[in-house]
């Protein structure tokens, strides 16, 4: 065991146990009190922790520290400062104070702000997030932080997340206490984010400008084989990939991330990695670390990790399933049905509150899971549809429907018999099946938000879920508060459940979310079907969303407007990069290859077969060239508007369909060029030559 990777678990994490070991007991208790938000962190405590943090990290090889933060790019950012300083005599010493730990300064001018401050207002500040442990990566002590402007406006993903989680804790605690559990002081959202990704050979990756610049293939005919044989899912993992996975696990374990499950996914060259549940704030940080480790480790193994939602046309893309539950400070799961869910008033009320939240604010949930890449995935027969609905499973939905009908609910079976397996005659029974077509599914004692794109930060989806659930629970708690006796409170709670079901049952759907019939049915129910990311951005600035954010103290109106502008810019820039890269590849690589094939066939033009192919090639290259000109013109036209919203919607409506038609011509041309003359690695090479 001495050389086993498990021995290094959390060796690079400044964990609770490290603080307890390296700091005086009074300092440790002061820090714990600050974590619980019972008192602010004082300077003496900060200085002591900073000293311990420096000594610990330097003992493990760290030379620099960094306030590690999450700007509105969707990625992470860091500026490295050395521990080294000169003393009064010019001698080198190592210094790290409580002030440096708590607050850092950086140039904020090059980070997206959406107009919250002018470009010349460059000053930005980072502040230590004491609820998320520091860690070491590449000999740098990384201190999880929030990022704000000179005037205090949040310019990151984490500050709103922390506000939303606090609001959820406050309101869920109120509901829990009103239902009789007075000892509960806090409620935490626990999150487990499953991460899907693709691996491709690095040498092939470097020959494709689209993968280099856009993260996905912009051209490429389908391989003769895709995922239709369903032989890759949970299949045997190749040695090369297994070696990569082992190093990824080891790196994650060293920073305290419980990398738990790994397997082949549905599409060829696609894989999945799942961690153990952590508090939501920490889960966000850990998912960002996980993506970074996947990317860097792949390079060391001669591969590239693709996190784009749809790297390859015609096969499944990648998502990030966000599993979450609500846990009290004494360990109770508010989403645990118990042995008798029909009698579990608290469970029924919490689930009903979540249903109301989802049905009231589906548009911002749709937005939170969106990005330019996810447009190629959502709504296809591989991912949940763009329509927000909730799957509860037959048992829980039946309980709710009987409550609506005011009919008795019988106790459920607690086990399932497997008569055909004699030595497994009695097994526990799950309360729900799994519905992979549902965007928001209840899976036994948690919800799974399945829409999120694989490249996206989970900070925004969690912020939105926490905010809308907190808002609904506030109204529930306000209803329950006037009642003095527990029995009266429970009766009122059941009335609230029935009222919510009457008004919001339309969001319940236990069927096939991929079917056309559901699209029709959802329209009848009045459920929104927002087809693209850029169209969903407008929901952020609708009045009901603005009021929601203000009421819960998550964003101010200027902050919402700024984030809206940033999202429009993101979409515009993404489409511009993809279109320009596509134009470059087709005009400089693929069209010339087609023209060379025409030249090769010209001497054979009088023979029947070459003559037909020559005619096809000539027609196709002419049409493709014409489409390229049209695409250039449309790009200029769509981006000529004054407003970002106008540009984004025009790109979606007018350019994207033309792009897809032009790509179809380029992919058709690929099939007419001899494979040895095709200038870039094809899908067969990329997807089936990892070993």
How are the SSEs ordered, and which strands pair?
Blueprint: H1 16-22, H2 25-35, H3 43-59, E1 64-68, E2 80-82, E3 84-86, E4 92-94, H4 98-102, E5 103-107, E6 123-128, E7 135-137, E8 140-149, H5 158-178, E9 187-193, E10 195-201, H6 202-205, H7 209-214, H8 239-254, E11 259-264, E12 270-275, E13 278-279, H9 280-300, E14 303-306, E15 322-328, H10 345-360, H11 362-368, E16 390-391, H12 394-405, E17 415-416, E18 427-428, E19 440-442, E20 447-449, H13 459-480, H14 486-504, H15 516-525, H16 533-536, H17 543-551, H18 557-601, H19 608-638, H20 644-670, H21 683-688
Parallel strand pairs: 1-8, 16-19
Antiparallel strand pairs: 1-2, 3-4, 5-6, 6-8, 7-8, 9-13, 9-15, 10-12, 10-14, 11-12, 15-20, 17-18, 19-20
Helix pairs in contact: 2-3, 5-13, 8-9, 10-13, 10-14, 11-13, 12-14, 18-19, 18-20, 19-20
Offer a concise description of the structure.
The protein is α+β, with helices and mostly antiparallel strands and 691 residues long. It is 46% helix and 13% strand. It is globular and about 95 Å long.
Provide an overview of this structure:
This protein is α+β, with helices and mostly antiparallel strands. Helix content is 46%, strand content 13%. It contains 21 helices and 20 strands. Strands 1, 2, 5, 6, 7 and 8 form a six-stranded mixed beta sheet that branches. Strands 13-9-15-20-19-16 form a six-stranded mixed beta sheet, with helices on one face. A hairpin with a 5-residue loop joins strand 3 and strand 4. Helix 10 packs across helix 13. The longest helix is centred in the C-terminal third of the chain and has 45 residues. The two termini are 30 Å apart. The model has no long low-confidence stretch (mean pLDDT 91).
């Amino acid at each position: 065991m001495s050389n086993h990777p498990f021995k290094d678990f959390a060796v690079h994490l400044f964990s609770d146990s490290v603080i307890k070991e390296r700091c005086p007991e009074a300092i440790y208790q002061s820090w714990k009190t600050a974590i619980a938000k019972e008192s602010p962190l004082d300077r003496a405590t900060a200085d002591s922790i900073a000293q311990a943090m420096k000594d610990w990290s330097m003992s493990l090889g760290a030379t620099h520290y960094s306030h590690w933060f999450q700007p509105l790019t969707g990625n992470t950012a860091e500026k490295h400062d050395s521990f080294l300083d000169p003393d009064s005599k010019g001698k080198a010493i190592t210094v790290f104070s409580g002030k440096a730990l708590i607050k850092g300064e950086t140039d904020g001018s090059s980070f997206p702000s959406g107009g919250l401050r002018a470009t010349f207002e460059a000053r930005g500040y980072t502040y230590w997030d004491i609820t998320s442990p520091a860690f070491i990566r590449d000999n740098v002590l990384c201190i999880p932080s929030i990022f704000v402007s000179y005037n205090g406006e949040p310019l990151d993903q984490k500050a709103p997340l922390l506000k939303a989680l606090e609001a959820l804790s406050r309101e869920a605690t109120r509901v829990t206490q009103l239902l009789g559990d007075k000892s509960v002081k806090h409620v935490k959202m626990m999150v487990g984010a499953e991460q899907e990704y693709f691996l491709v050979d690095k040498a092939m990756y470097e020959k494709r400008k689209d993968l280099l610049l856009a993260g996905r293939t912009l051209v490429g005919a389908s391989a003769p084989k895709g995922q239709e044989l369903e032989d890759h899912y949970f299949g045997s993992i190749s040695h090369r990939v297994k070696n990569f996975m082992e190093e990824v696990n080891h790196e994650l374990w060293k920073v305290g991330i419980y990398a738990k499950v790994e397997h082949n996914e549905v599409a060829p060259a696609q894989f999945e990695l799942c961690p153990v549940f952590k508090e939501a704030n920490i889960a966000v940080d850990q998912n960002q670390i996980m993506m970074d480790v996947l990317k860097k480790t792949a390079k060391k193994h001669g591969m590239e990790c693709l996190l784009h939602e749809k790297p390859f046309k015609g096969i499944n893309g990648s998502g990030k399933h966000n599993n979450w539950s609500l846990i009290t400070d004494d360990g109770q799961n508010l989403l645990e049905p118990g042995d008798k869910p029909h009698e579990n008033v608290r469970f029924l009320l919490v689930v009903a509150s979540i249903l109301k939240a989802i049905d009231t604010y589906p548009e911002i949930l749709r937005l939170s899971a969106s990005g330019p890449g996810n447009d190629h995935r959502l709504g296809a027969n591989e991912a949940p549809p763009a329509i927000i609905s909730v799957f509860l499973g037959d048992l829980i939905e039946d309980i709710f429907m009987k409550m609506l009908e005011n009919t008795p609910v019988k106790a459920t079976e607690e086990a399932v018999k497997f008569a055909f397996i004699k030595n497994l005659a009695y097994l526990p029974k799950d309360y729900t099946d799994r519905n992979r077509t549902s965007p928001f599914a209840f899976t036994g004692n948690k919800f799974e938000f399945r829409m999120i794109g694989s490249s996206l930060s989970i900070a925004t989806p969690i912020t939105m879920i926490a905010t809308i659930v907190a808002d609904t629970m506030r109204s529930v708690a306000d209803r329950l508060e006037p009642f003095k006796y527990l029995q009266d409170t429970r009766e009122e709670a059941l009335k609230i459940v029935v009222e919510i079901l009457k008004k919001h049952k339309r969001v319940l759907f236990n069927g096939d979310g991929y079917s056309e019939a559901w699209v029709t049915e959802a329209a009848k129910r009045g459920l929104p079907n927002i087809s693209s990311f850029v169209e969903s951005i407008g929901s952020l600035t609708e009045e009901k969303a603005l009021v929601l954010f203000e009421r819960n103290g998550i964003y101010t109106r200027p902050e919402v407007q700024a984030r809206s502008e940033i999202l429009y810019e993101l979409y515009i820039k993404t489409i511009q990069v993809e279109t320009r890269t596509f134009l470059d590849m087709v005009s400089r690589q693929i069209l010339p290859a087609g023209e060379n094939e025409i030249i090769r066939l010209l001497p054979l033009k009088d023979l029947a077969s070459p003559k037909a192919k020559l005619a096809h090639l000539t027609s196709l290259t002419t049409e493709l060239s014409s489409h390229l000109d049209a695409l250039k013109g449309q790009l200029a036209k769509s981006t000529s508007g004054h407003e970002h919203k106008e540009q984004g919607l025009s790109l979606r409506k007018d350019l994207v369909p033309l792009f897809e038609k032009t790509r179809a011509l380029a992919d058709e041309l690929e099939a007419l060029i001899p494979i040895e003359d095709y200038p870039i690695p094809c899908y067969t090479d990329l997807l089936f030559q990892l070993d």
